[in-house]
TrEMBL record:
UniProt protein name: Leucine-rich repeat-containing N-terminal plant-type domain-containing protein
Record carries keyword Methyltransferase: no
GO cellular component: plasma membrane
Cross-referenced SMART domains: LRR_TYP (SM00369)
Protein source organism: Triticum aestivum (Wheat)
GO MF: signaling receptor activity
Topology in membrane: Single-pass membrane protein
Gene that this polypeptide is encoded by: LOC123133076
Keywords per UniProt: Glycoprotein, Leucine-rich repeat, Membrane, Receptor, Repeat, Signal, Transmembrane, Transmembrane helix
Length: 530
């Protein structure tokens, strides 16, 4: 028979294990109850549709069944995600949310949250994703966010945040995505932001940031997406931006940048999108920039750039889909190779000093928008119009303010069924309006004013049931206004002033009930308007 001295240690060990196992559910319950109380505290400051937080009840003990809550699967079941995106919730974000110590995702975007961002959120050591975008949050960003060891995604965009961008965000070793766009943030750009060892995506557009773009001193930082558009950033574009060798998308539109475009940008081999529009840039475009086979989007409009468009542009920019060179000082014919850029969708060359004939763009099956306005381009035999019939996706054709002369061809009626805008104003077009224009049933805006057009307004104009704006003003039109004009029931603006139109104003105009602007002055019309 074993002695009691041998049994006693075994009994003590068993008793200890029994007590531990009995107390475990209590510990589990305590952690779960802490999460429940944190959520009820968070709810206490909120209002919104009853269905959203109806399950968040003091009488309900299983928080994992509450709307918008995700819990971990192994016990203890802790709250690991709070997702209340686009739920119509208003109120403030309670610091109680920091008591959800196991949370990894906090998603409250597209609601009506107001007040400040609690600094306590920076204490959530397991938080990886924070999305508070599209609310009415105000005040400064809490610097403590930069000390969170797990945070990789931060989206505070489209709020009313003020103050400066905390340096701590730039020094975070975990941040990969930082979106602060659409706020009222001011001050200068933190230098460390551009030399981060972790940041991949930085969106700071539509703020009040000032100063210059910091120099990039790090070797090949991992930044792939950088958007500083629509701020008040000044100075030159530093050539050191070329050190961002992983850049795919660079947008600096709508600032006060001056000087020339650095050659180094043309050596960022992955770069697909480059937007420098609406600055004060000058000089010529670096040859390296027009020689980037990776580019799909190049926007340099609204600057003071000079020079000639490269004749071999279809070979040097073979993958370009959007090309914006408008409102600069380019002087040259449109390169004959441009219509060979097969993937081209949008081409904006307006407001330059381009000369020569309009090329045949019919070899561009994907072309959707073509704006060559305010140059010195000529029509030749209008063959370009026939070729455009092959561009079956064309929705906008703008040729305003050029040297277009002669009669419009009947082939204008063969243009894309999708064509919505046809702008030919301020040219020297003569002859009648082709009746085939009535084939273009998707048109919403037609401007042919300030030309030398003669003849009658074709009755087929009444086929254009989607027209919203129609102007044939300042021409030499004669005859009567066709009764079919009354078919244009969506018309908001109709301008036929300063022509030689005669007869009675058709009663059918009374069917145009949405008409806000009607100008018939300086014709020979009679009768009442309605």
């Amino acid at each position: 028979m074993p002695s009691s001295a041998v049994l006693f240690p075994s009994f003590v060990w068993f008793l200890y294990l029994f007590c531990f196992l009995c107390s475990l559910p209590l510990a589990i319950c305590k952690e779960t109850e802490n999460d429940r109380q944190a959520l009820l505290c968070f709810k206490s400051r909120l209002s919104g549709p009853a269905r959203v937080l109806a399950s968040w009840s003091n009488k309900s003990f299983d928080v994992c069944e509450w709307h918008g809550i995700t819990c971990s699967k192994p016990y203890p079941r802790r709250v690991i995600a709070l997702d209340l995106e686009s739920e119509g919730i208003s109120g403030s974000i309670s610091p109680c949310v920091a008591n959800l110590t196991s949370i990894t995702r906090l998603q409250l975007s597209n609601n009506n949250f107001s007040g400040g961002i609690p600094s306590e959120i920076g204490l959530l050591r397991r938080l990886r994703e924070l999305n508070l975008s599209r609310n009415n949050l105000e005040g400064n960003i809490p610097p403590s966010l930069g000390t969170s060891p797990s945070l990789t995604y931060v989206n505070l965009g489209v709020n009313a945040l003020t103050g400066v961008i905390p340096e701590s965000l730039a020094y975070s070793s975990s941040f990969r995505i930082l979106w602060l766009n659409g706020n009222s943030l001011g001050g200068k750009l933190p230098k460390a932001l551009f030399n981060s060892s972790s940041l991949v995506d930085i969106s700071l557009q539509q703020n009040n940031l000032v100063g210059s773009i910091p120099v990039v001193t790090a070797t090949s930082p991992p930044i792939e997406y950088l958007d500083l558009s629509d701020n008040h950033i000044s100075g030159k574009i530093p050539s050191s931006l070329g050190n961002l060798s992983s850049l795919v998308d660079l947008r600096l539109t709508g600032n006060n940048l001056v000087g020339s475009i650095p050659e180094s940008l043309g050596h960022i081999s992955p770069l697909q999108i480059l937007a420098l529009t609406a600055n004060n840039l000058s000089g010529t475009v670096p040859p390296s920039l027009f020689n980037m086979s990776s580019l799909t989007f190049l926007s340099l409009g609204n600057n003071s750039l000079v020079g000639r468009l490269p004749p071999n542009i279809s070979y040097t920019l073979p993958n370009i889909q959007t090309l914006v060179l408008s409102t600069n000082k380019f002087e040259s014919p449109i390169p004959a190779s441009l219509p060979k850029v097969y993937n081209l969708r949008q081409l904006y060359l307006y407001n330059n000093t381009l000369t020569g004939f309009i090329p045949f763009f019919g070899s561009l099956p994907n072309l959707e928008e073509l704006d060559l306005s305010y140059n010195r381009l000529a029509t030749g035999n209008w063959g370009f119009m026939s070729s455009l019939a092959n561009c079956t996706r064309l929705t906008k054709l703008l040729l305003v303010g050029n040297n277009l002369q002669g009669k419009m061809p009947s082939s204008i009626g063969n243009l894309s069924d999708s064509l919505e805008w046809l702008w030919l104003r301020e040219n020297q077009i003569s002859g009648p309006i082709p009746q085939e224009i009535g084939n273009l049933k998707s048109l919403t805006r037609v401007y042919m004013d300030y030309n030398l057009i003669t003849g009658n307004i074709p009755p087929t104009i009444g086929n254009l049931h989607r027209l919203v704006h129609l102007s044939f003003a300042h021409n030499k039109l004669s005859g009567q206004i066709p009764d079919t004009i009354g078919n244009l029931v969506k018309l908001i603006s109709l301008k036929l002033d300063e022509n030689n139109i005669s007869g009675r104003i058709p009663a059918s105009i009374g069917s145009c009930t949405q008409l806000e602007e009607l100008n018939l002055r300086q014709n020979s019309l009679g009768g009442s308007i309605f």
